């Protein structure tokens, strides 16, 4: 069989249960659900990080963030280091990235021949701070979405503090019809697919900046869902009371900044936010459906995931701070469908979303770099119906590059505050909401074993991979 096209859809800050097949339809994603029904759903997939940039560098390299060289800031991948895009391009694939990837600089070369980028520039430090009289050009790295807006006679709402703040305050998108980031990414992707090189296999990443804030769906999505529809979070802030003091403190002040809290006396702001997120998710799913319609699934392997999750009111918190790898943040949806996939199945074994890189190499029949110890694995055995018999023994990790790390093995999940040497252990099968830390003698033994395995992973350094450095 000819080498398949490889398509990766990524969303930003979408919880593992903010999809139709994991929410009893509360989140409407009929196109993703159809793709999932024809493919494989991984019910226990974990991101490499609870923050955007490290999660995305792990997706592109198959390496956990502490093993990657950075540049300019402590998270962004150093330009020229090995990536799946670079490896596939060198193997003859046409490589393209459309949407958000949080590169620094924005157009850094990581192996994509075509890049049409739409970023959260205000979150990346490329826009002037509120109150600045003039833009600091040294911080100004404009994306393709910005240039497209100007070329077509539209102001960039992200560069106007009044418009930016209006969009950040949960209001319908105020730009012209068709100029919302999701609309732009869909249009750019479909136009690219029309002109792609048909004599080369394709590696394409389509990366949507939502449902990450700003929660600004355009109409009709802004009015699609009634905020009063019941969908309360399953936990509130009191669930944190059983945690050790250092964990409890982080839930109230993270890096000296109070996390976003829900208001127990007024549920309306949370209800409105959930309605907005549902609209953004539905908008993305509609765009995904039209893009998938242009693909030949008989010749393509399609992946869907998100970079990380969101508290969404659980544990009494909103957004993603503190960056502690509870399942609210660390667990993500992961769906794979297309040619060669034995579909119609759900897989319960532990996997990592960043297993994507080695899986893509496997389907492309490109060798994994020799002499490199990867902690990730190809998921192809699961996808073709011949899983590894040792999969149940696997450990998965999250957040290896900052103070709060996670390791899960089997039913047990350990969260470690590394600078303070404090750990908590959960049985996430019996306690999926991570309410009750275990403290019996057996749990002490399990915690020590998991911390030993985590320390072994943390001891691995930056590998000697082929690059353009």
Describe this entry's structure for a reader.
- Helix 6 packs parallel to helix 8.
- About 5% of the residues have low confidence.
- It contains twelve helices and 15 strands.
- The protein has about 475 residues and is an alpha/beta fold.
- A hairpin with a 5-residue loop joins strand 12 and strand 13.
- The protein is globular and about 60 Å long.
- The strands form three sheets. Strands 5-4-6-1-7-9-2-10 form an eight-stranded mixed beta sheet, with helices on both faces. Strands 12-13-14-15 form a four-stranded antiparallel beta sheet, with helices on one face.
- It has one domain: 3-Layer(aba) Sandwich (Alkaline Phosphatase, subunit A), CATH 3.40.720.
- Helices cover about 25% and strands about 15% of the residues.
Break the fold down into its secondary structure elements and pairings.
Layout: E1 5-12, H1 30-38, E2 40-42, E3 45-46, H2 52-61, H3 84-90, E4 94-99, E5 114-117, H4 144-151, H5 161-168, H6 181-195, E6 202-211, H7 245-252, H8 268-293, E7 300-306, H9 327-330, E8 331-332, E9 334-338, E10 345-347, E11 351-352, H10 356-364, H11 380-383, E12 395-398, E13 404-409, E14 412-417, E15 422-427, H12 441-458
Parallel strand pairs: 1-6, 1-7, 2-10, 3-11, 4-5, 4-6
Antiparallel strand pairs: 2-9, 3-8, 7-9, 12-13, 13-14, 14-15
Q: State the CATH topology.
A: Alkaline Phosphatase, subunit A
Structural class by helix and strand composition: alpha/beta
Highest-level CATH class: Alpha Beta
**Spatial extent as radius of gyration:** 21 Å
Count of spatially separate domains: 1
Biggest β-sheet: count, sense, barrel?
A: 8 strands, mixed
Task: Give the helix level as a range of percent.
Answer: 25-40%
Low-confidence stretches: 128-139
Helix/strand order, N-terminal first: EHEEHHEEHHHEHHEHEEEEHHEEEEH
Q: So what's the overall shape?
A: globular
Q: How many E strands?
A: 15
């Amino acid at each position: 069989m000819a080498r398949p096209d490889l398509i990766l859809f990524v969303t930003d800050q979408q919880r593992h249960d903010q999809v139709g097949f994991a929410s009893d339809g509360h989140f409407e994603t009929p196109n993703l659900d159809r793709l999932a029904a024809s493919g494989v759903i991984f019910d226990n997939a974990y991101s490499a990080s609870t923050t955007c940039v490290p999660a995305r560098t792990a997706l592109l390299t198959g390496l956990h963030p502490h093993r990657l060289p950075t540049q300019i800031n402590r998270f962004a991948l150093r330009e020229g280091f090995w990536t799946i895009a670079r490896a596939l391009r060198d193997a003859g694939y046409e490589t393209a990235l459309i949407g958000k990837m949080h590169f620094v600089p924005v157009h850094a070369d990581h192996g994509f021949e075509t890049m049409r980028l739409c970023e959260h520039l205000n979150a990346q430090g490329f826009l002037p701070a509120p109150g600045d009289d003039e833009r600091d050009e040294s911080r100004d790295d404009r994306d393709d979405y910005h240039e497209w807006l100007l070329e077509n006679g539209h102001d960039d709402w992200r560069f106007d503090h009044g418009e930016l703040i209006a969009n950040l305050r949960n209001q319908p998108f105020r730009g012209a019809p068709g100029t919302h980031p999701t609309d732009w990414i869909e249009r750019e992707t479909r136009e690219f697919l029309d002109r792609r090189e048909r004599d080369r296999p394709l590696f394409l990443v389509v990366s949507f900046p939502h449902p990450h804030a700003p929660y600004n769906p355009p109409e009709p999505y802004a009015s699609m869902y009634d905020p009063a529809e019941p969908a309360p979070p399953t936990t509130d802030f009191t669930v944190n009371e059983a945690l050790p003091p250092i964990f409890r403190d982080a839930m109230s002040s993270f890096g000296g900044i109070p996390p976003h809290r829900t208001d127990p006396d007024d549920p309306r702001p949370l209800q409105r936010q959930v309605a907005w997120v549902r609209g953004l998710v539905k908008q993305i799913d509609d765009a995904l459906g039209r893009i998938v319609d242009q693909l030949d699934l008989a010749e393509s392997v399609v992946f869907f995931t998100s970079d990380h999750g969101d508290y969404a009111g659980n544990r009494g918190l909103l957004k993603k701070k503190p960056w502690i790898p509870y399942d609210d943040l660390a667990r993500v949806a992961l769906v794979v469908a297309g040619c060669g996939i034995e579909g119609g199945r759900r897989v319960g074994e532990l996997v990592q979303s960043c297993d994507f890189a080695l899986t893509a190499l496997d389907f492309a029949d490109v060798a994994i770099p020799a002499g490199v110890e990867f902690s990730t694995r190809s998921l192809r055995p699961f996808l073709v119906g011949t899983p590894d018999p040792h999969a149940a023994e696997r450990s998965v990790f999250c957040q290896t590059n900052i103070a709060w790390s996670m390791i899960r093995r089997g039913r047990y999940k350990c969260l470690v505050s590394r600078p303070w040497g404090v750990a908590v252990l959960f049985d996430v099968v019996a306690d999926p909401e991570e309410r009750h830390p275990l403290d019996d003698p057996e749990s002490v033994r399990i915690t020590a074993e998991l911390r030993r395995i985590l320390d072994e992973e943390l001891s691995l350094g930056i590998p000697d991979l082929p690059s353009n450095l």
